[in-house]
Structures are given as structure tokens and as C-alpha cells.
Design a protein that fits this description.
2 copies of one chain form a homodimer. By secondary structure, the first copy, chain A, is mostly helical. The first copy, chain A, is built from 17 helices and 2 strands. The A-B interface holds A 40, 42-45, 94-95, 98, 101-102, 120-122, 124-126, 128-129, 131-133, 135-136, 138-139, 142, 144, 147-148, 151-152, 154-155, 157-159, 161-163, 165-166 and B 40, 42-45, 94-95, 98, 101-102, 120-122, 124-126, 128-129, 131-133, 135-136, 138-139, 142, 144, 147-148, 151-152, 154-155, 157-159, 161-163, 165-166.
């Protein structure tokens, strides 16, 4: 039972710390494995990859893998879960590198993106390298069923990226399509990260299904909150600038809801700013004002809470433990962060 | 014995036709598998992939896979070699898509490149999709040892691409480094394509080693000839313009040899044109003239013949057959094409 109510009845701010503390040994091993596996005689590869991997990300995906494996009783002296965790981080890093090229991003987590430092070419090619290195790692682990899960997840991510590119700046994108995109782009890898943790521990029945569902719902909630925070968060805490999505004309749920709920004048505004990318300095403030009026950001958080609730319930079949509590708190953190 | 001397003693022009004819059924199945596997609800994916796959490439890599499998007695009614052949074509296609983005290429085999039609973003993402789809296919085939070979080959290609990017326009690149790059970028996938053909047929001993060596040496020869033809070929036959590599400042063996063999004035010319990319209209003709003087193109062909000879000898342990003759003729074709 993860409770976010402290003894004094005062609401405690949920955090990732308990999960990170319980998985500290494993995550230190993941760090070492990451450094070992990005070695290459071609110096640019570790240099660029290190920039990305050490950029202060939360390493949520590998954390899910090792936590899921431990929750399923994976033995402490084995290390296949470490390699799988490294593998999901590499897949994630590869997609980040390519994403930043495609989105022409200059900042990620408050630091210059790899493409802004080394150029697009290097980012594309080192991304490819990390992708293929991830597959080498999976093959090392030697389990075909796990390879199947991770290769299908990678393929889904790539398909989702193309889908997002195609639907980009189409203001009439339905919420269902947006959900498909974030499931494919973000949640699928969360799901696979947790699922392979169960698999490597030999729990291929209900626990595997439960952890996949946990990861999927957590991933959806996580992305919804990310998209909400782009209009509502505080810059310093986010490590990215507010309004990035707006300036890039990204179709996220806050925009979709504000468009659907707005009248003709509002819709003209969204068409001009998001679809035609014809923006004036005051437009971001107006966008936030329209979202406020229609509770578009608030309801995006509300949707996130729905998926968060499903993630929490997915863990119901596991017995009480500090690790389970920490995973439940991680769900709350995903939703409440930077609030 | 593949003879390239016809009965009248007149030199016959070697071709790929005998190999294509012997593998026609398999290659038709590969075509169908390619189309089936690039299906996606995201229309841009099959559209862009089809543009590339149907661009009239020779499909040398999948041809190597099915031919190697058949040479090793792979049963006619099985189809894992078809999936592996599709897989190597997808890996190759993915790298082409990313290569053309990195090289800012507008033409490939005489047709507009995907990036010039759909843009860099689509090419990067559909390339990722093909990569991941290739891994899904491998997992389908279900052999971990084959997965190991293909994932290591993919990783080597990616590493080679980065190495090429780093050494790009460094006029003092040694021949050894150039060889490393073309082994990694081109020959490794040729080698893996042939090797997995032996593996899927269950020939993991000398035949596997022989076919890997055949593919590796054929791949090196193939790339050397490609690089020579960029200064010596005829535009219509190549389907690409003469001098592309020169205009891009690519360090290929003809340039390396001309630089090493030239005096101070020559070296200034190569530094200006290739390293600083400061080119005048007449510079390509002068480059060709300097290469002629030092026999740089001729000796690049000579190097290719050396690797071709090794490729031919690698097949020595296989008994005589029409298929073996056709593979030997393919080596001659790789060297003599467009001459």
C-alpha cells in the first residue's frame, strides 16, 4: 500500500526516491553496464552517447526493468536484468537522438541537445549505433521471447514516430489518434521495460501481464503530464522551456481539448498558431488563457490520473512490500511532479 | 569452374543474370515478403519504403542469402531463408535512408532520394522503422546464433558510418582506415548476408566460414569498384552522377592514392578541393587527370581484383554446380560492371 498521506494527515509530495533507494545497487550496475557497452574505438560514439546518457535523465525505463524483476523475485546474484535495463535505456536514448533531430530541438533537460552540439548527422548515426548495440545486448541475454517483446516495442516506437510526423500540425487530430501516438511513442517502451523484468524472472503468467499493464498505463500518464506541463509547468523544474510544444505546433491533448471545446474564433486561433505556425509573441499567453477557460490542461491531468489509477491497480496481485509501495509512489510522482 | 571465356575464346562480359535466374523463385518470394513486411497503417511507411525498395536496386544482399542457403542444400519447401533475405534488405534499406540524409544526397540509382521527396525527418524515422522491422523478422526466424551475426553486423555498420563521418574530408586518411570504413559500412553486411544463408541451412562449420569470407571479400571488391567508378564510370550506366564523391569531399581510395603519390602541388590541390571543399568547375577534370597520372583509379580496380580473387577462392570447398558458377561470375560482375 503506497500511502501519500503522512501520519499528521498532511499530504506528502510523492517522489521517486524510495524506488531509487531500493534499486540503488542495481542502478549503479546499470550505469556501469551503460558505460561499458557504449565503448567504441570511434571516440565520437562514447563522447556523444555519454552526453546524452549522463544528461541527468531519471532513467525511468531501466528502473522499471530492474524493479519489475526484483518484484518478481529475480535472484540478486544474476545479471541478465542489468543487461535488459541497459538495453531499454539504449533504445530510449536512440529515439531521443533521432527525435531531437526531427524536432530540431536545441535543449533537452536544460542542456544543449546532441544535435545542437555535434550536428544532425552525428546524432542520426550514433542513434543508429545505440539501437543496434541494444539489439546486440538483447541477443546476449539469449531469450527469444524477450527479444520478441523488445523488437516489437522498438518497431512500434518507430511506427509511432512516423504517425506523429504525419499527423503533425493537423489541428483536427482526434484524441484517439493522439492516444495511439503516445502509446506507441512512449508507453509501449515503458510497458516492455516492465514486462521484460517479469520475463527475465521467469514469471510469464499473470505477473507479466500485470507489469506490462502497469508500464503501459504509467507511460500514458507520464506523457499526458509531460504534455500538460508544457503549458502549465515551471521552467526551472522542467529543464525545458514552457511552450516548446506550442512553438513547434505539436498536437497534444491540451491543444486538442481547447480546439474541440472552443468556438469559431478560438478555432481560427489554433489553426493559425498550430497548423500554420504563424505565431506572434503574445500567442502563447493567449493559448494558455484559452486552455484555462476550457480546463484543457486540468482535464489532461485528469486523464493522466485515470491511467495512473489503472497502473496502481495492475500491481494489486503482488503482495505488500516496500518495493511495491515505491512503485505505487512512482505513479503518483509521474502525475504530481512539478505541480 | 566459372569461366568468363566463351567457347570462341572471346571474353564474355560477366553478369548477374545466371545467379538471378537460378534464384528467381526465391527472389520472387523475397519480393512478396518485403511488400508484406513493410505494411503499416501509417501510409507514409509503405509509400516511402516502396520508393526505396522498388528503386531498381540489384538486391545483392538478399540474393547472397538465398544463394548461400541453396549452395548449402537448404530445403526448397522451407522459408526461413526468405525471411532472413528480407531482413538483410531492410537493414540495407534503413542504412541507405540514413546515409542519404547524412550525405544530403538527391539522387540514388538515377531516381530522387527519399529525403529529397519526403524530407529528412521522414527518412530518419522510416529508416528506424525498417531497422526495427528487420529485427522483428530475425526474432521470427528464431535462431539466436543468426540474431547474433546480424545484430553485430548492424552495430558494425552503424559504427562504420560514424567512423566515416569523423574521418570525412581528412585528406591524410590512411588506406588502412579507408579499408576499415568500407569493411564496416559495406562488406560486413555482405559477409553476414552470405553467412546466415549457411547458418539457416545448418552448415555451421567450414561452409559458414567460407561463405562469410566470400561475402566479406565480395563486399570490399564491390565498394572499391563503386569508389573507382565515381571517377571513371559512365553516368548513364551508374545511375548516379560522376564526381559525386569528389563534390562531397569523400575520402575514397582513388583520392588517397592520388594524394599519397602526388607531389606538393598535387597535395595542395587535394587539400583545397577535398578537405576545404573549395572547388572550381574544372577541378573534377583535373582530379581525374591527376588520378590518371598516378594510376589511382586503375590501382583501385587492381585492389578490387585482389579481394575478388579471395572471394572466388573462398568457394573452393564447394563442389561444382551451376549455382557455384553463378556466384563466381557475380564476383567478376562486381569488378567488371560498367567498365
Amino acid at each position: 500500500m503506497a500511502t501519500v498521506v503522512s501520519l499528521e494527515g498532511k499530504r506528502k509530495v510523492p517522489g521517486l526516491e524510495p524506488l531509487l533507494a531500493l534499486c540503488a545497487d542495481d542502478m549503479a550496475r546499470v550505469d556501469r553496464e551503460i558505460l561499458a557497452r557504449m565503448r567504441s574505438p570511434v571516440a565520437l560514439i562514447p563522447e556523444l552517447a555519454q552526453h546524452l546518457v549522463s544528461a541527468g535523465g531519471k532513467r525511468l525505463r531501466p528502473l522499471l526493468t530492474v524493479a519489475a524483476a526484483r518484484l518478481c523475485g529475480y535472484p540478486a546474484d544474476d545479471d541478465r536484468h542489468i543487461r535488459l535495463a541497459t538495453c531499454v535505456e539504449f533504445i530510449h536514448s536512440a529515439t531521443l537522438l533521432h527525435d531531437d533531430v526531427v524536432d530540431v530541438s536545441v535543449l533537452r533537460r536544460g542542456k544543449p541537445t546532441a544535435n545542437s552540439v555535434w550536428g544532425d548527422k552525428a546524432s542520426v548515426l550514433v542513434g543508429d549505433f545505440l539501437f543496434t548495440r541494444a539489439f546486440e545486448l538483447m541477443v546476449d541475454v539469449g531469450a527469444l521471447d524477450i527479444l520478441g517483446v523488445l523488437s516489437r516495442a522498438s518497431s512500434t516506437i518507430a511506427e509511432g514516430e512516423v504517425l506523429q510526423l504525419v499527423t503533425q500540425r493537423d489541428i483536427s487530430t482526434p484524441e484517439a489518434t493522439y492516444l495511439e501516438v503516445i502509446k506507441a511513442k512512449t508507453a509501449r517502451l515503458f510497458a516492455a521495460s516492465a514486462e521484460v523484468g517479469a520475463m527475465v524472472a521467469g514469471r510469464n503468467g499473470a505477473e507479466r501481464v500485470a507489469l506490462e499493464s502497469f508500464g503501459m498505463n504509467l507511460g500514458i500518464a507520464f506523457q499526458l503530464v509531460d504534455d500538460a506541463l508544457d503549458y502549465a509547468g515551471r521552467e526551472a523544474q522542467l529543464g525545458k522551456s514552457i511552450g516548446d510544444d506550442f512553438r513547434e505546433g505539436k498536437i497534444t491533448l491540451p491543444v486538442i481539448l481547447a480546439f474541440l471545446r472552443g468556438g469559431a474564433v478560438d478555432r481560427e486561433f489554433w489553426k493559425r498558431t498550430i497548423q500554420a505556425l504563424d505565431q506572434q509573441p503574445a500567442d502563447l499567453a493567449r493559448a494558455q488563457c484559452l486552455m484555462e477557460r476550457h480546463n484543457a490542461v486540468g482535464d489532461t491531468f485528469e486523464r493522466a490520473r485515470h491511467y495512473g489509477a489503472m497502473a496502481r491497480d495492475a500491481l494489486g496481485l503482488f503482495g505488500d512490500s516496500a518495493l511495491k509501495d515505491a512503485l505505487l509512489e512512482a505513479v503518483d510522482f509521474a502525475i504530481d511532479r512539478a505541480h
